[in-house]
Amino acid sequence: MSPLKFDDLLHRIKHRSMQIDPIGAAVCLAVTLHHLATDISLQALAASYKFGQETVSNIMAKVCQTIWTALKEELVAFPDTEQWEKIKWDFWHFWNYQNCLGAIDVRVRAPCSSGNTYSLSKFGSQLIQGNLSLLLLSTLPGSKVLSSPVFITDEAFPLKDILIHCGPPGPEFDTPGTYNYRHSRARWVVENAFGILAARWRIFGKTMECSVDKAQDITKACIALDNYLCTGDSMDRPLTYDRPDIQYEQLDLRPKFLF
Fold first, then answer.
1. pLDDT tens track for 192-208
2. Do 139 and 158 share a domain, yes or no?
3. Residues 71 and 86 in one domain
4. What is the number of structural domains in the chain?
5. pTM of the model
6. Coiled coil located at which positions (predicted)?
7. Domain with 155 in it
8. Is 105 in the same domain as 187?
């Protein structure tokens, strides 16, 4: 991230009560970006800034929440009906998977005593409970049966009308494994998106060993930050970027993340 981009981000979040006395907002933002981009341990990060480990943990939590609050409306807005329709068409056109609105993945390590239900109780709760405003029922190709739009997942999520994951091949398929193949291929979307995210924010390079609430805050902040950086970075411009007589074209070549 360039100095100009850092200053702009600081300006966006500074007025949102992010001040942690006697630590300035700029230092708090720098500490947070350092951890997200390098996955340095909190202990090493605290030592490098001469802070206590608990202080760094509190800074991380507060700044991640503030980043999400400041950027979500502009950069991670919830899709409207037209955008949902485009997403559904893209899954059908590119991945040959009909009536799909997205792919979901979970990479949080739950406590040993909680089992798989720990992640299920938090992630995707709105989807599982049907509280999201999505598209209406529609028919699949070659069928007159109305079907709800779905999100494709893995076995971390339960099977629901709106959540579906691979299963063992059965006689209901013309070719064994046909559905599993199309399902796995469509899930490349979330895996590729995660790869792009992890290439910039190395905290995703390994499974997060933290509470689900903190993992959500970190993930949302990184998604918002990644979309923010996709809008253009002055480091990618020529050295004459500060000349007012030159207008530089802003190219957004990478897909933005929807949360």
1. 888 888 899 999 888 77
2. yes
3. no
4. 2
5. 0.72
6. none
7. 81-192
8. yes
